[in-house]
Automatic annotation (TrEMBL):
Provenance organism: Paraburkholderia monticola
Family: Belongs to the acyl-CoA dehydrogenase family.
Protein name: Acyl-CoA dehydrogenase
One Gene Ontology term of the molecular function aspect: flavin adenine dinucleotide binding
Keywords attached to this entry: FAD, Flavoprotein, Oxidoreductase
Signal sequence residues: none
Length: 333
């Protein structure tokens, strides 16, 4: 129900034309305001506080939809930030809040948040600093863009006098939420890229028939379909726990699996589209650019594979199938 309602808003506001306008410096207020005014930023807040009281598994399809529409504002991050701030006593700030899963303190006591998603456009940053939780005013930070065309990602640096006191020790929850969000976004964007590619292959004719009827093309499409389905399953795994925050091992598996599929999905989509697929006028690049960016956000598959590998080696008995079936949500994980 919530997913369909949000998709109806995004159909109107998050069109490819709107995304291009925002990438070129236009305002993103129409998308943000439409979702905020509908109350959808409180999906994880309890009903007693005016929210929807959804579980993680129930909110996952919504987060995947944000990826499918390549939403250019931190809607998913703001939903997570409100959930993480709920029991801290810190009021939810007004405006767009994003997540920084790994910040570091410099020798001069300034604080650096490298490659923050929506770091160039956000108003606030909920940050993990060595396991501590901080809420930072992004307007007080020096912002350095990533340099990638159309990206809202940037590195933020706060002077020592602009860094507030910590108010919690659950900073890792920011990293886990952010990584799980990106796994869902990748799964959603992959689904859209595959749909575009399949439609193009059915429409494009060569030698008197659609190219989708050629066996070589069908093989590539079938491989894409397998990875898209697997990414969707991995995204669901990341949000499958019963807690208020995605489980550590489940998140690691989800982010590793979805990130690992990005190069194959993006390269195959562009190959099957041919020359038109690399043009700025064609919508495919709006999604594949984000796939590559989300792949490395919060660590690529190499980072998360190491975490999964350590957990696998630590198990005393059972097969890898037993591990995949039971470990992600076990207390030991």
């Amino acid at each position: 129900m919530f997913t369909e309602a949000i998709e109806a808003i995004l159909d109107d506001c998050a069109t490819p034309e709107a995304i291009r306008a925002i990438e070129n410096g236009g305002p993103a207020a129409s998308i943000w305001n439409a979702v905020e005014e509908a109350g959808f930023l409180e999906l994880l807040s309890p009903e007693s506080a005016g929210g929807a009281g959804l579980s993680l598994s129930a909110v996952e399809p919504v987060l995947r939809a944000f990826g499918r529409y390549a939403v250019p504002v931190p809607l998913a991050q703001s939903i997570a930030a409100r959930a993480l701030l709920r029991d801290t006593g810190v009021a939810t700030p007004v405006g767009m809040t994003t997540l920084a899963g790994a910040c570091r303190r410099r020798e001069d006591d300034s604080l650096e948040a490298p490659q923050v998603q929506f770091g160039m456009t956000c108003d606030h940053v909920l940050a993990n600093v060595d396991g501590d939780l901080l809420l930072l005013d992004a307007t007080l930070a020096a912002r350095e863009p990533s340099g990638v065309r159309g990206s809202f990602c940037g590195t933020l640096v706060w002077r020592p006098d602009a860094v507030p006191a910590t108010f919690g020790t659950n900073g890792e929850a920011v990293l886990l939420f952010s990584a799980a969000i990106h796994a869902a976004a990748i799964a959603g964007a992959m689904d859209h890229v595959f749909a575009m590619t399949l439609q193009y292959c059915n429409d494009r004719s060569q030698f008197g028939k659609s190219i989708g009827k050629f066996q070589a093309v069908q093989h590539q499409l079938s491989v894409m379909a397998q990875h898209v389905a697997s990414a969707g399953m991995a995204s669901g795994l990341g949000f499958g726990g019963a807690g208020a925050v995605p489980e550590r091992l489940a998140t690691a598996i989800a982010k590793a699996r979805t990130s690992a599929a990005v190069p194959l999905i993006a390269s195959t989509a562009h190959a099957l589209h041919g020359a038109i697929g690399v043009t700025a006028e064609y919508d495919l690049q709006l999604y594949t650019r984000r796939l590559h960016e989300w792949r490395i956000a919060d660590g690529s598959e190499a980072f998360w594979h190491r975490m999964v590998g350590i957990a696998v080696l630590a198990q005393e008995h059972g097969t890898i199938v037993d591990f995949a079936r039971t470990a992600p949500y076990s207390a030991a994980a």
